[in-house]
Design a protein that fits this description.
- This protein has 2 helices and no strands.
- The protein has about 70 residues and is mostly helical.
- The N and C termini lie far apart (about 35 Å).
Amino acid sequence: MSKRRVAIGKELGQRVTIRLDRPSHSQLVEYASSEGFTPSTIIRHLVKRFLANQSRLSVDHMKGITL
């Protein structure tokens, strides 16, 4: 299966490392593969959506977020 390419701007370059439990990681990899993306592309998309929603809602803190 060929992966769809997502344009990555030149501004990317900052690395963030995350750790997932094995079941979550496996599920992410499986989903990404089935959709033709890499797991990192999906994570970047989710972070961008989260930050856009935070800005839209004018939320300055992570009140109510459970980790």
